Amino acid sequence: MTQEITSFADILAPVSPEEFFAVYYGKKALHVPGTAEKFASVMSWARLNDILNMTGIWSGASLQLFLDREAVPPREYCRPAADRGTGAEVPRPDPARVTELIRRGASVIANDIDSLNPGLAATANAMEAALEAKVQANLYCSWQKHQAFDTHFDTHDVYAIHVEGEKTWRIYEGRLEDPVAHPAFKALGQPYHDKARGKVKTEFTMRPGDLLYIPRGVYHDAVALTEGTIHISLGATAVIGLDFLTALFERAIHDPLARANMPRLSGPGGEAAYEEHLAKLARRLGEMGGEPEMIEKFKEYQRRYKYSRGGYELPGEAAAARYRVTAKGCKVAEEGNGFALEGSGGTVPIPPGQDKSVAWVIGRDQFTRAEFDAAFPETPESERAQLLRDLASMKVIAAR
Predict the structure, then answer these.
(1) I want to staple 78 with a disulfide (CB 3.0 to 4.6 A). Which of 65, 91, 109, 335 is the partner?
(2) Are residues 233 and 260 in the same domain?
(3) DSSP 8-state assignment for residue 281
(4) What is the CATH number of the domain that holds 120?
(5) Do residues 296 and 328 both lie within one domain?
(6) What is the DSSP string of 312-365?
(7) Which of 55-64, 73-82, 286-295, 328-337 is modeled with the greatest confidence?
(8) In a shared domain, residues 180 and 84
(9) Are residues 137 and 112 both part of a single domain?
(10) Which residues, in sequence order, are CB contacts of 123 under 8 Å at separation 6+?
């Protein structure tokens, strides 16, 4: 029986959130074995096929292929196509070329898919609420004995949910302390990683229903044991001290001392006067950082630090959502026994019974979720929400 994910406790079970935050969070890796049904609502082969067939939403950047630890250049599996939103030429994956590379053992990485499936969106929302962090999901489909990536660390915490097949993961002793997405950490070469990773600390096999938590900076790698192995990596990026420095910069713009020129080193008082000015500036920045209004604004920034997943708003937010139509010139046309949406980027089949809804959307410049719901009250709410998510993913519409 498929389990519904409604909270962070559901994701961690049988480990409690209290135990997780006290023992593992930010400290060490955690492997939680689960039943095959645990994450069945998060992703399935059928839903993955539906997502990959939405060719209009993918590009060489969002759908990537790796073969034996090397990135496959987009030119080898993409063809030029016009972007529905801007009309600019972008590389779109060619299904035939992608299929051929998969047959050769290439791993498929589908980026930013957390808004493309209800179960996955619910999982990401639950994690964001508990972690007070932005959570973004990438899907990895790998093949037996073909390793997509060398040993590496991530600059965000990783929560890997295993969906299909089996995969061996290795966690190493080496760890960089709280790396961030900056060239200082991103530009480290593989020889550095191979030395810094140290010895294997633990090794285990992930199966459907398993969860793996890896703190940022911890070295790891993985290799598929079976064909068609799928896991979803949910990356959690929390608010850090550097974000406060950015907020402090915005506050300092309104302070005359911060805007003033630095004294000339050769001016009156020389370097001593220069150093005194720096000390005064540092004290002033400290005062600004401690202002009650500054603190409250930063707390609110953290409370709101999450992604918007169109169609997956929290209760009370959905009706107020506003959209604008970004793809002009699209039309609904008959195709076989059904209908399809035709545009400059290609043709996408429309789910049965949704042709009038799609035609209503593309016939407008902008609309609200409440207006859309009122126009099609006979359509189940879940189908209306999924259609808006699909259209947003294909860049036919965009949230305002």
Answers:
(1) 91
(2) no
(3) H
(4) 2.60.120.650
(5) no
(6) -PPTTTTTT-EEEE--TT-EEEEETTEEEEEETTEEEEPPTT-HHHHHHHHT-S
(7) 286-295
(8) yes
(9) yes
(10) 5, 11, 39, 42, 114, 137, 161, 234
Whether residues 112 and 196 share a domain: the answer is yes
Asked if 323 and 399 count as a contact pair (C-beta separation under 8 A), the reply is yes
Tell me 264's DSSP state. Answer: P
**Is the pLDDT confidence value at 46 over 90?**
no
Residues 32 and 108 in one domain: yes
Domain boundary among the residues 216, 238, 260 is at: 238
Beta strands in the chain (DSSP E): 30-32, 63-67, 70-71, 78-82, 89-93, 107-110, 133-142, 157-164, 167-175, 200-206, 211-214, 218-224, 229-238, 322-325, 331-335, 338-343, 346-349, 366-368, 397-399
Tell me how crowded residue 178 is: count the other CB atoms within 10 A of its CB.
Answer: 13
Number of domains in the chain: 3
pLDDT digits (tens, 9 = 90+) for 76-88: 988 887 665 556 6
What pLDDT is attached to residue 52? Answer: 78
- Tell whether 15 and 76 lie within a shared domain: yes
pLDDT digits (tens, 9 = 90+) for 88-138: 677 788 888 888 888 888 888 888 888 788 889 889 999 999 999 999 999
Question: Is-contact 273 267, C-beta < 8 A?
Answer: yes
Which phi and psi angles does 144 have, rounded to 5°?
Answer: -50, 125
Asked if 164 and 40 sit in the same domain, the reply is: yes
Two tokens at 59?
Answer: 């590009």
Query: In the structure encoding, which two tokens stand for residue 51, read together?
Result: 């997502």
Collect all residues with Cβ–Cβ distance below 8 Å to 375 and sequence separation of at least 6.
357, 360
Give the 3-state secondary structure of residue 38.
Answer: coil
Q: Domain span at residue 279?
A: 241-303
